[in-house]
C-alpha cells in the first residue's frame, strides 16, 4: 500500500502535533509480531472557540499521565495524536471537520483507537465510520459524550445505526443525559422548589437529548414545563425570546445545550428580561461547565450547573490517583485543569491502554478486549476517578454514574452537592 504522507496545518498543544489529518489504512503496531512497537491513540477535540481551554487541559492531562506511566501499555509504546474537530469560523465543533477526521483516523497507519469526542453530535458522525474500518472495528472511547443514543435505545434507529458492522466499537466513561437531565429536574424540584420551568435547547444532539430528559423528569416531579423551545444560535440577542417567555411567569429556566452556541448572549438576555438568577433560577447541564468566559459573566453568577461526573475539587479531597494527578498538573501548569472532564479524558485513556495491553496490537484485537468476555475493569486504586470502573462489554457504558451539582459563585464553579442517580 502507498504510504504517501499528507501534510496539514498544525498548531501546538503541550508540545504535541494537533491537526485534522491522517494517512492510510492501519493495521496496528509497527512491530507487534516481535513484541512491541509504537501505537498511536487519536485524540479528537474542539481546539478553537469556547471549548479551547477545556480541550487543551484534557490533552495536557492525558500527556502528563502518559509521562508518569512511561507511555507504556504492556509491551507497547503509546503516543497521542491530537485532531481538531472545530473550525475558527464556527468557533465550535463542525460536522464536515468531524467527518474528515473520521476518515483520517481510519487512514492513519499507526493509529489504533480514538479518545473523544467532546460533543455527542461529532461522535455520531465519527463512530459509524470507525465501526466500518476493514481492519477493525476501531475503538472509540469518550470522556464527555452524554447523549444516551450512542449506546442505548433513545431516538429512532439508535444505537444500531452507529454500529453498521453489527459489532460494538464505542464506549464512554461518563454518565448519560437520561441521568443528568433527570438529576437537574430533581434538583430543581426538591432543592429549589421550582414549580414552573421553561426549557431552551440549542437544537443539537446533546441539547435536545438532555432537554428531553429534563422535561420528562420535571413532569414526574410535579414541575409544569412551560415550553421546550430551540434558541437560534445566530441571533444577535434574545430579548424578544425572553419577553415571550416572561409572560408564562417561570421560576426556572433550563438551558439544554452548549455554551459555544451563543450561550453568553443567551444568559445576558435572560437576566436582562427575567431578572437575576436568585429571582428566576438558571440551571444548565455540563454543556456550560468548564468555560472561563461563562464563569466570568456577571449575569451567570448564581447559576446552577450539573456535571456528569465528579469534579476536580471532589477528587482532590478524596485523595488517590486523581488527587495525585491534579497536584502534578497544578505544579506543571500553575492551576487546575479548566474542566473536570480533563480527568475523564485520562480515565478514557486508561480504558484504551488496558485494552491495548491485553491485545495483540491490532485495531480488531484492541476493540475485542472491550466488547468481549468481562470487558474492561479498572480497580479503584488505579482509577483516576477513585472508584472501580467497569465498561459493559454489551453496551460500552460505564458502571460509575456520578452526577455533581455546582453553583457559580465569585466566577468559580463551586461544588454544591452530589446527586444520587438510580
From TrEMBL:
UniProtKB keywords: Signal
Cross-referenced Gene3D superfamilies: 3.40.50.2300
CDD domains membership: PBP1_ABC_LIVBP-like
One matching Pfam family: Peripla_BP_6
PANTHER family referenced in this protein's UniProt entry, alphabetically: AMINO ACID BINDING PROTEIN, LEU/ILE/VAL-BINDING ABC TRANSPORTER SUBUNIT
InterPro entries xrefs: Leu-bd, Peripla_BP_I
Similarity comment text for this entry: Belongs to the leucine-binding protein family.
Official protein name in the record: Amino acid ABC transporter substrate-binding protein
Taxonomic lineage from the root: Bacteria, Bacillati, Actinomycetota, Actinomycetes, Kitasatosporales
Superkingdom, taxonomy of origin: Bacteria
Domain Leucine-binding protein: 40-369
Taxonomic source organism: Streptomyces sporangiiformans
SUPFAM superfamilies tied to this protein: Periplasmic binding protein-like I
Coiled-coil region(s): none
Leader sequence residues: 1-25
Amino acid at each position: 500500500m502507498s504510504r504517501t504522507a499528507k501534510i496539514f496545518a498544525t498548531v501546538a498543544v503541550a508540545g504535541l502535533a494537533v491537526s485534522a489529518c491522517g494517512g492510510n489504512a492501519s493495521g496496528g503496531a509497527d512491530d507487534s509480531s516481535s513484541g512491541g512497537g509504537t501505537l498511536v491513540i487519536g485524540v479528537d477535540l474542539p481546539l478553537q472557540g469556547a471549548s479551547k481551554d477545556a480541550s487543551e487541559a484534557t490533552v495536557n492531562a492525558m500527556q502528563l499521565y502518559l509521562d508518569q506511566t512511561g507511555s507504556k501499555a504492556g509491551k507497547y509504546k503509546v503516543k497521542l495524536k491530537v485532531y481538531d474537530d472545530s473550525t475558527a469560523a464556527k468557533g465550535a465543533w463542525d460536522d464536515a471537520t468531524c467527518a474528515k477526521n473520521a476518515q483520517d483516523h481510519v487512514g492513519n497507519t499507526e493509529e489504533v483507537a480514538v479518545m473523544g469526542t467532546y460533543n455527542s453530535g461529532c461522535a455520531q458522525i465519527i463512530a459509524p465510520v470507525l465501526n466500518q474500518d476493514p481492519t477493525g472495528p476501531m475503538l472509540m472511547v469518550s470522556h464527555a459524550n452524554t447523549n444516551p443514543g450512542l449506546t442505548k435505545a433513545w431516538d429512532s434507529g439508535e444505537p444500531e445505526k452507529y454500529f453498521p458492522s453489527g459489532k460494538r466499537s464505542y464506549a464512554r466513561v461518563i454518565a448519560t443525559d437520561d441521568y443528568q437531565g433527570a438529576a437537574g429536574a430533581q434538583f430543581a424540584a426538591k432543592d429549589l422548589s421550582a414549580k414552573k420551568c421553561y426549557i431552551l435547547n440549542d437544537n443539537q444532539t446533546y441539547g435536545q437529548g438532555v432537554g428531553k430528559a429534563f422535561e420528562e423528569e420535571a413532569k414526574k416531579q410535579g414541575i409544569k414545563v412551560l415550553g421546550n423551545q430551540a434558541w437560534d444560535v445566530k441571533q444577535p440577542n434574545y430579548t424578544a425570546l425572553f419577553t415571550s417567555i416572561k409572560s408564562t411567569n417561570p421560576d426556572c429556566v433550563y438551558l439544554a445545550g452548549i455554551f459555544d452556541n451563543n450561550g453568553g448572549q443567551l444568559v445576558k438576555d435572560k437576566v436582562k428580561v427575567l431578572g437575576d438568577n436568585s429571582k428566576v433560577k438558571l440551571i444548565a447541564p455540563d454543556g456550560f461547565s468548564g468555560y472561563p468566559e461563562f464563569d466570568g459573566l456577571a449575569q451567570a453568577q448564581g447559576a446552577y450547573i450539573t456535571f456528569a461526573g465528579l469534579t476536580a475539587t471532589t477528587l482532590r479531597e478524596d485523595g488517590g490517583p486523581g488527587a495525585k494527578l491534579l497536584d502534578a498538573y497544578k505544579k506543571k501548569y500553575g492551576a487546575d485543569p479548566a474542566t473536570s472532564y480533563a480527568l475523564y479524558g485520562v480515565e478514557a485513556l486508561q480504558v484504551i491502554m488496558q485494552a491495548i495491553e491485553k491485545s495483540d496490537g491490532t485495531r480488531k484485537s484492541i476493540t475485542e478486549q472491550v466488547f468481549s468476555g468481562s470487558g474492561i475493569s479498572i480497580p479503584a486504586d488505579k482509577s483516576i476517578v477513585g472508584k472501580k470502573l467497569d465498561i459493559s462489554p454489551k453496551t460500552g457504558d460505564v458502571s460509575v454514574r456520578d452526577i455533581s451539582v455546582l453553583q457559580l459563585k465569585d466566577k468559580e464553579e463551586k461544588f454544591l452537592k452530589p446527586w444520587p442517580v438510580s
